[in-house]
Amino acid sequence: MKVASVLKRSVLAWAIAASPWVQAQDIKLGFNGDLSASPSAQAGQAGLLGIQAAIEDINAAGGVLGRKIVLVTRDDQSQPPKSIQNMVDLIDNEKVAAVFGPTNSGNALAWRHIPNQKKIVSMGMIGAGTDITKPMSAGADNYMFRVSMVDREQIAALAAYAVKSGSKKIGLMVETTGFGQGGLKDMQEVFKAHGVKPLAEEKFAVSDTDMTSQLNKMRAAGVDTILVWAQGTPTGQLVRSMDKINYFPTLLSSWAADNPSFFDAAGKALVGKPLFMRTMLNPSTPAQQKLFARVAPKLSAPSSFTFVSHGYDATLVLVAAIKQAGSIDGIKMREALEDLKAPVVGVMKTYEKPFSQTQHEGLRAGDLVFAKWSDDKIVAYVDPILKSLTSSDFKR
Questions:
Q1: Nearest CA to 283 among 271, 272, 273, 294?
Q2: CA dihedral defined by 184, 187, 189, 195, rounded to 10 degrees?
Q3: Domain extent for 231
Q4: Looking at the predicted structure, is the pLDDT value of residue 21 above 50?
Q5: Between the CA of residue 25 and those of 308, 319, 321, what are the distances in Å?
C-alpha cells in the first residue's frame, strides 16, 4: 500500500510537470527605470507605455513560444543604489527573462556588470550613455543591447555641425551626473579628433536654477558655440540664465531638450534656442499614427512619443530573439540578438540584422535627425551647413 501511494504521487507529479499549464507559464520581462523622480521621468513613463503596448499586441497575437508575456515594473527613482537593487530583485527573485531600461545613463553604468555576470539580456530604450553597451572587457560576451539614442552618435553630428560652421570658439557645459560626465568625455574626445580644443568647460548640478556665473566665464573666454549635455530641466534653466545676461551663443544640446521638462523650464519664448537631435520627429507613418492615437491620452506631452516608439520597437526586437532562440535562456537570447535572421518591422524602422557580436546599437547616426522647438512643436531643422555635411565630417 505504501509503495502504491508513493507511485501514485510520482505519477501525479510527472503529470503536473508535463501539463500544458506548466509548460505555458508566463514569460516575465522586467522594466527598471525612473518613473517619478528626475527630469527624465517623463521619458521613462513614455518608454514604459511603449513596452506595454507591444506586449499587449504580442499577447493578442498568441504570445511567444505559446506563452503569454507579463511585465514586472520597478521605479529606480533615478538613484543608482535603488537601480542596482531593482536589477538584483528582477533577475534573482522575479526570474525575468530580460530587463528593459533604465531611464538614466548613470544607473545603467552602475549596474551593467549584473546582467553580464548573470547572463541576462538588458535592452536599453532611453539612457543614451555611450559606454552602456560596451563589453565589460575586450572580447567578453556582452548582454547589454539598445534601441535608442547614443550619445557618441549625437555628439559626432553636433560637433561636425559646429566645426563646419567655422567656429573654433567652443565651450562645453555639462551636469554633474553620470549622463553629463559621460557626455563630457565624448565631447572632449570628438573635438580632439577634429583638432579643436574647447576654450572653456563648466559644470552645474541638475537642481541648479542659475548658471549665469558659468555663462559669464564662457562669454569672457570668447565662446560663440556651446555644447550642453544635461537633462531637460537644467537645460531649460540654462537658456533662462542666458536670457538674464543677454548672451545667446549658438546652443547645441543633448536630445534631452526634446523633453517636456525642458519646455516647461525654458518657457515658450526661449524653447527655440537649442538645436538638438532626435531618433524621430512627429508620428507620420500609419503605424506611428496608430500607436500615437492609442497612447496619446496617457502622454505628458506629444513630444514624448519618441520614447514610446523606442519601448515598442525594443520589445518587438527582444521578442523576435526569443522566438528565434526557441528559449528564454539568456545565452541563447544574446546569440539570437547578435544574428537575427528575419527583419523586425517596428514603428520607427525595419530592423534588419540590427546587432552583431561587436555592435549592440539598434539605431545609428543615419537614423537621427536634427530638430528644434518651434512654438509648442518639435520640427525638423535644416540649413546650408547641414546640407553641406558629408560622412567625412563625422569624427568619432
A1: 294
A2: -140
A3: 166-278+371-393
A4: no
A5: 27, 16, 19
